[in-house]
């Protein structure tokens, strides 16, 4: 869904009930916002910033997925395998976008769609599903 409104400010109901994961989701939201904001700037600085943000996003995503998966494992989350599969799919797709950005062939509408979907389907969907399981797990 091409909806800029999905990338608004953090809302309390986005919380998954763990302060570390919430903090990471906030940072991811901010990186998604920045990527979308600068993707239409075709100046040399704009393109360079866009690449920079995509790289940051890619690095940060790995960190986040690792933290989240470790916490879900520690809490005995029954849907961990499925959750990890979703992470892998997002990870692979992001790698595709990074590669095409490096080649100067990125599909910006596709990236926008992907980031919006990730936020609404995964973070506000699959991630919210585990919130009841991780309470009290550090
Ligand atoms: Fe997450
Ligand atoms: Fe997740």
Helix content: 55-70%
**Structural class, from secondary structure content?**
mainly alpha
Strand content: under 5%
Per DSSP E runs of 2 or more residues, the count of β-strands stands at 0
Order of helices and strands: HHHH
CATH class: Mainly Alpha
Shape: elongated
End-to-end C-alpha gap: 34 Å
CATH homologous superfamily, by name?
Hemerythrin-like
CATH second-level architecture: Up-down Bundle
Number of helices: 4
- Rg, alpha carbons: 15 Å
What's this entry about, in short?
By secondary structure, the chain is mainly alpha-helical.
Describe it for me?
With 138 residues, the protein is mainly alpha-helical. The chain has one domain: Hemerythrin-like (Four Helix Bundle (Hemerythrin (Met), subunit A)). Helices cover 70% and strands 0% of the residues. The protein is built from 4 helices and no strands. Helix 2 packs antiparallel against helix 3 and helix 3 packs antiparallel against helix 4. The protein starts with 18 loop residues before the first helix and ends in a 9-residue tail after the last helix. The mean pLDDT is 90. It binds fe (ii) ion (2 copies).
């Amino acid at each position: 869904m091409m909806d800029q409104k999905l990338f608004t400010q953090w809302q309390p109901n986005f919380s998954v009930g763990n302060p570390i994961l919430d903090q990471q989701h906030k940072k991811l939201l901010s990186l998604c916002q920045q990527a979308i904001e600068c993707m239409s700037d075709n100046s040399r600085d704009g393109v360079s910033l866009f690449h920079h943000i995509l790289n940051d996003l890619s690095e940060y995503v790995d960190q986040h997925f690792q933290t989240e998966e470790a916490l879900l494992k520690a809490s005995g989350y029954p849907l961990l395998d499925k959750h990890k599969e979703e992470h892998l799919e997002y990870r692979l797709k992001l790698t595709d976008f990074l590669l095409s950005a490096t080649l100067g062939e990125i599909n910006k509408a596709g990236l926008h769609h992907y980031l919006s979907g990730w936020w609404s389907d995964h973070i506000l969907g699959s991630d919210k599903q585990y919130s009841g399981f991780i309470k009290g797990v550090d």
